[in-house]
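Methods, example record. To illustrate the input and output format used throughout this study, we show the complete record for DUF1176 domain-containing protein. The sequence lines were provided to the predictor; the line carrying structure tokens was produced by it.
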Amino acid sequence: MKRFYAWTSLCCLAVTSPLTFAKEIQGMSFSHQDWEVYCSNTGTCRAAGYQDDYLQSMPATILLTRKAGAKQTVQGTFALSSFDQALDNKKLNNLNFFINNQDYGRVRINISEQLLTGALNRKQLNALLQQTRKKANIVFKNAYYTWQVSDAGMTASLLKMDDFQQRMGTVGALVNPGTADESKVLAAQPKLVVNKVKTAAKPYLTLQPNSRQYQNLHKLLMAARPTQSDVAEFCEGIYDGEGAKPQAIELYKLTNNKVIATTLCWRGAYNEGYGAWVMNQSLTGKASFVTESASGFAAGEISSAQKGRGIGDCWKMSEWIWQGQAFVQTVDRWSGMCKGFAGGAWDLDLIEAVVK
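The corresponding predicted structure is encoded as:
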């Protein structure tokens, strides 16, 4: 996901591994058609469904959230908006929730800058969950407005949620419930706790590409690229009319005789990404690669915010915190598909942490 300006569907592949409740949980993401699911290091899963591409003028989304562990219920929230017309607040009363043309009653809405949000009650949520293996016509409507959430991809996404939380074949499974109890389902884990060590906010040294020291350091940084990266494309620099050119390297002091080296690696129509490496203050030895998509660095914190391309802005956000020995990733978040919600509709986390 290096270059968001060349947009492709995020998280179209599941990143899963066998898990047991005794092991550290690795986050998982998956998307199929109009639904996606993100499960974090705490074991909490969030599945979101959206309108299909033919209904982009009336963005609609439902978020289903379930914590890991036995006897955990599903919570359902929704967001509705309008992409090309202003909603008339006087016409937003008496909005009801329908499944397959059956009315399941009024939904309470909160109105904020043309965004309608609310929660499904238990009756409405149960009606939706009863359709996890069937076709479902999911609609919010009144006499003036209609929003429809696609069911395409819902079964696959909720099946991934069940699989991640080890509920397959149990009485609590959402898609294929069985008779097994939930004694062996994935147990919830606490959020990662990271103690932040503050460092310098400004660089102490800037090296230009024409210097010998730069050239020696640049070789060390490029040698530390991730194994899956293409040598020709990794941190290639900025196009200047003739070709991609490496950019200046800035060095910031950390702690424990470590420094962070940063350089502008790439730039596109919507985003740019800086590379970040940790190494000895002597600028010798092996460098430790952190990211190639940083947006900024200051006082022991690397941040990244990359805009997705589509109808309405959506964002991929990351954060790494210096804890004295290394940078630890504390945020890995996606705001949801680019489906007409400015800034994205949700916070879908792979990593949840508390920074102290």
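Annotations derived from this record:
The two ends are 29 Å apart (CA to CA).
The chain has a mean pLDDT of 91.
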